[in-house]
Amino acid sequence: QLQLVESGGGLVQPGGSLRLSCAASGFTLDYYAIGWFRQAPGKEREGVSCISRSGGSTNYADSVKGRFTIARDNAKNTVYLQMDSLKPEDTAVYYCAADGTYTSVQAMCATAVVYGMDYWGKGTLVTVSS
After folding, report:
1. How far apart are CA 25 and CA 67, in angstroms?
2. Which candidate, 68, 74, 108, places its Cα nearest to that of 92?
3. What is the distance between the alpha carbons of residues 10 and 126, in angstroms, rounded to a whole number?
4. For 10, 17, 25, 83, which has the most beta carbons within 10 A of its beta carbon?
């Protein structure tokens, strides 16, 4: 079964940190660009951060630049999202997704919600609250 599984979500206080993981099973992530997306209650899903197949190119939403870091470990078939200095407005369900056709991580982050990705995970909830 081909799937992506997110983990690492939870409740954290403002200013705290979490690291999300996105693990693939049934296929290798080497051939896919990966994106992290989030959907807050009552809002549309949005791109948070994307990384190219090699890891050499990354893209971040303006709202998370300087606080979030995306990284991939192809040997472990896993992509990570390190989230620091968390704010209440970061509260959302976070999804990872993989796609083999996007050539621009910037374009992928901006348009994947509309045009789709090859694979989506089921999401992990992040709640930032005191």
Report:
1. 29
2. 68
3. 5
4. 83
| pLDDT tens, position by position, 40-52 | 999 999 999 999 9
Q: What is the pLDDT of residues 109-130, one digit of tens each?
A: 999 888 889 999 999 999 999 9
Q: Look-up: residue for tokens 């896993």?
A: 78
Q: Show the 3-state SS of 70-115.
A: EEEEHHHCEEEEEECCCCHHHCEEEEEEEECCCCCHHHHHHHHHHH
Query: Is the C-alpha dihedral spanning 67, 5, 103, 44 positive or negative?
Result: negative
> Closest Cα to residue 24, out of 38, 9, 5?
5
Give me the count of residues in the chain: 130
Residue 58 forms beta bridges with which residues? 51
34: β partners: 51, 98
CA nearest to 21, candidates 91, 123, 128: 123
CB 35 within 8 A of CB 101: no
Only one residue has tokens 């939403």, namely 61
Please report the sign of the dihedral spanned by the C-alpha atoms of residue 88, residue 65, residue 105, residue 83. negative
